[in-house]
Design a protein that fits this description.
Blueprint (H helix, E strand, L loop, with lengths): L7 E7 L24 H13 L4 E5 L13 H5 L13 H7 L4 E7 L5 H14 L4 E6 L4 H6 L8 H19 L7 E4 L4 E3 L7 E4 L4 E4 L12 E4 L4 H10 L2 E4 L4 H18 L8 E10 L3 H12 L4 H12 L21 H8 L12 H11 L4 E4 L1 H15 L3 E5 L5 H16 L12 H6 L6 H6 L2
Helix pairs in contact: 1-3, 4-6, 7-8, 8-13, 10-12, 13-14
The protein binds flavin mononucleotide.
Flavin mononucleotide (FMN) binds next to strand 3, helix 7, strand 10 and helix 11.
Length: about 450
């Protein structure tokens, strides 16, 4: 029996030409023999992650091309800055059909879809995948998303979180509305379901109204596994209250510790949930090779693919500020960002754990462009697992989301080289123990829905 903490792994990707490493579509090893929107590509990605004993794939998403940079989306389109990105839930059944154990986490925004439709979609996907679906709950932080849906202005963060609270409240009501034993399926009597056990949900809230029965029978997991990545104060509360796995990006152990201490205290003290019932998953990027020198050469080649204008378009989009108007040598330390606050911190603290060494706009763009500010682990399998162990044992990581570089190659290399090293040290499963994503991700730490819903 292993005594070291076992780690969880997720592959962090988008249903698009380029995920979270800007310019990687240009790399000679990217998508060799595949188009990003093909069935074969996603089947192969899923099978590769399952071979590498990942818990799941994390499909990130946003709803429209970023347009903050210079007030337009030209550089976003020109340099493939997460653009084009196709609809994420369309690939869930493809990955599900190609795999048996891999979880499939899909990012779906609460902002422009009614909770009734969202619940139906997620229940259907959980059925199709036999209980392997997670939902990364987001509220659309980017102005371009709001404009694409016909709004002039973005709703401020606080109100987005208020609305999202009510959104989940209604989702929980719908998912839990079919009681155990509701499905009778008795061919002799002709009774399929017992209406006395299928509640009519009647929700009359501030933001949503809904009256009716959930249209899907209970799926294997009942509710999808809830994932969250909000990192402002309000976002941390939301995650601590609702999530079963939380995602964060921190450049060093000190920042990881600050985060895990704060969020754990919210989980256990503020929301009265069981310690360990929420998994902390940190972003990392790995560049692996047989020798350190080879890995460094690989990394240098990746960095040479980054276009500065594309990098600036990306940080403008993620942080909601127009960096095209700023001097490339000015410092970013004191900027107030309306966009993703938590990810901005990965830049502020990129050079030292106290954030005292200033970071220029140009440096910020280039650091961020390689992998959203995640620590980049470059080296042999031993070097990489050494660092992962430090993040796990000293930084509180329960697992990692691995940001794609070139695909599917980076996941093939991880499965071939890093997975065996993790297993050799007892850090990673050698077979899947559960049949659902929740069982694999949470194991004995699984907490009942009632406990989550009733948390203060
Ligand atoms: C690691 C990480 C991944 C994220 N992925 C997405 C995403 O795919 N789509 C999205 O709309 N927001 C994404 N976000 C944004 C958040 O979930 C959240 O909506 C945003 O950070 C604003 O909330 P905050 O200010 O509380 O952080 C991500 C954030 C982090 C830290």
């Amino acid at each position: 029996m292993s005594t070291v903490k076992q780690l969880h792994l997720l592959g962090f990707v988008q249903h698009g030409v380029n995920s979270h490493a800007t310019g990687m579509w240009r790399h000679q090893r990217d998508k060799v023999g595949y188009h990003f929107s093909s069935v074969e590509y996603w089947q192969h990605m899923g099978r590769t992650m399952e071979r590498g004993m990942f818990d799941g794939v994390f499909i990130a998403d946003e709803l429209a091309p970023y347009s903050t940079h210079d007030g337009n989306s030209d550089d976003t389109v020109k340099y493939a800055v997460q653009c084009p990105t196709h609809e994420p839930s369309t690939i869930v059944p493809i990955i599900a059909a190609a795999t048996r154990h891999l979880g499939i986490g899909v990012t779906l925004s609460t902002m422009f879809v009614h909770p009734y439709s969202m619940c139906r979609l997620l229940s259907s996907l959980d059925h199709i995948s036999k209980g392997r679906v997670a939902w990364n709950v987001v509220s659309s932080y980017s102005k371009s998303e709001w404009e694409a849906y016909g709004f002039e202005d973005i709703t401020p963060r606080e109100e987005r979180y208020d609305r999202m609270e009510e959104y989940l409240e209604l989702c929980y009501k719908l998912w839990d509305s079919w009681e155990p034993g509701a499905v009778v399926a008795d061919k002799a009597s002709g009774v399929y379901a017992d209406p006395a056990k299928v509640k009519v949900v009647d929700h009359q809230g501030k933001y949503f109204k809904s009256k009716g029965r959930h249209f899907c029978e209970p799926s294997p997991q009942g509710r999808p596994v809830i994932w969250q990545a909000g990192s402002s104060g309000r976002g941390r509360d939301f995650a601590a209250k609702h999530a079963e796995a939380i995602f964060a990006v921190h450049p060093n152990v000190e920042r990881m510790n600050e985060y895990v201490t704060d969020v754990n205290s919210r989980i256990t003290k503020k929301f009265n949930r069981k310690a360990g019932s929420v998994k902390f998953i940190y972003g990392i990027q790995t560049v692996v090779a047989e020798t350190k020198a080879e890995a460094q050469a690989k990394y240098d080649r990746m960095l040479s693919c980054i276009p500065l204008e594309g990098a600036l378009a990306w940080i403008s989009g993620h942080f909601g500020l127009d960096f095209s108007k700023m001097d490339l040598n000015s410092h970013v330390q004191n900027l107030e960002v309306p966009g993703i606050q938590g990810l901005f911190e990965s830049i502020i603290y990129a050079k030292d754990p106290q954030g005292r060494i200033p970071v220029t706009v140009k440096e910020a763009a280039l650091i961020y462009a390689q992998g959203m500010g995640m620590p980049v682990l470059v080296g042999t399998p031993v070097d990489i697992v050494d660092r992962m162990e430090v993040f796990a044992d000293k930084g509180g990581a329960d697992g990692f989301m691995l940001a794609a570089t070139y695909t599917p190659g980076c996941f093939e290399e991880f499965a071939d080289m890093v997975t065996p090293e993790l297993q050799r040290r007892g850090r990673l499963r050698t077979s899947y123990s559960g049949s659902t994503l929740r069982e694999n991700l949470l194991g004995a730490d699984y907490e009942t829905y009632e406990a989550v819903s009733n948390s203060a």
